[in-house]
Amino acid sequence: MNDIYHYQFLNENLSSSGMPNAEQVKQLAEAGVQVVINLAPHDVPNGLANESELVSNLGMGYFNFPVIWRAPESELLVRFMDTMDAHAGKKIHVHCEANYRASAFIMMYRVLRLGWNKTDAIPVMEKMWNPEDFPVWQTFIDDNLANHS
């Protein structure tokens, strides 16, 4: 699975990445992933048009929270975190286009729902990208960490 764009193994039950192709989705299933969460809209370049069907046919649960890159919404973050909570203990893979949305949502989940310190959670996200380079995302992260903590 390391050939999936920006793949990141986070622990035995959680991984994230950029957009996998169909063969890589099969690899996720073979690795025991039980739930796939896609944070990218369906119309992104390299997106899998039939991802929901492919994932379901491989026996995994599928959730899509289409986070618009230029306008991330707190409502989708809450739905994502609720889904993570509902599937706690299962092997989950979270992806988007480049593992920017995914790593940011996972970081906020860890801080807001799992009680991680920001000083531990943020560097894991920053292995993928720095939200300071995208002011709308820096504001989104700052606001959600302040408003939900």
Blueprint (SSEs and pairs):
Blueprint: E1 8-11, E2 14-17, H1 22-30, E3 35-38, H2 51-57, E4 61-64, H3 74-86, E5 92-95, H4 101-112, H5 118-126, H6 135-148
Parallel strand pairs: 2-5, 3-4, 3-5
Antiparallel strand pairs: 1-2
Q: Compute the separation of the termini in Å.
A: 34 Å
Task: Please tell me how large the radius of gyration is.
Answer: 14 Å
Mean pLDDT: 96
DSSP helical segment count: 6
Query: Architecture, CATH level 2?
Result: Alpha-Beta Complex
In CATH terms, what is the fold-level topology? Protein-Tyrosine Phosphatase, Chain A
CATH superfamily: Protein tyrosine phosphatase superfamily
Structural class: alpha/beta
Number of strands: 5
Helical fraction: 40-55%
The major β-sheet equals:
5 strands, mixed
- Tell me, briefly, the overall form: globular
* Strand portion: 5-15%
CATH uppermost class: Alpha Beta
Topology order in helix (H) and strand (E) letters: EEHEHEHEHHH
What does this protein look like?
The protein has six helices and five strands. It has one domain (8-148): Alpha-Beta Complex (Protein-Tyrosine Phosphatase, Chain A). The chain starts with 7 loop residues before the first strand and ends with a helix. It has a five-stranded mixed β-sheet with strand order 1-2-5-3-4, sandwiched between helices. A hairpin with a 2-residue loop joins strand 1 and strand 2 (14-17). Helix content is 43%, strand content 13%. The longest helix is centred in the C-terminal third of the chain and has 14 residues, at 135-148. It has 149 residues and is of the alpha/beta class.
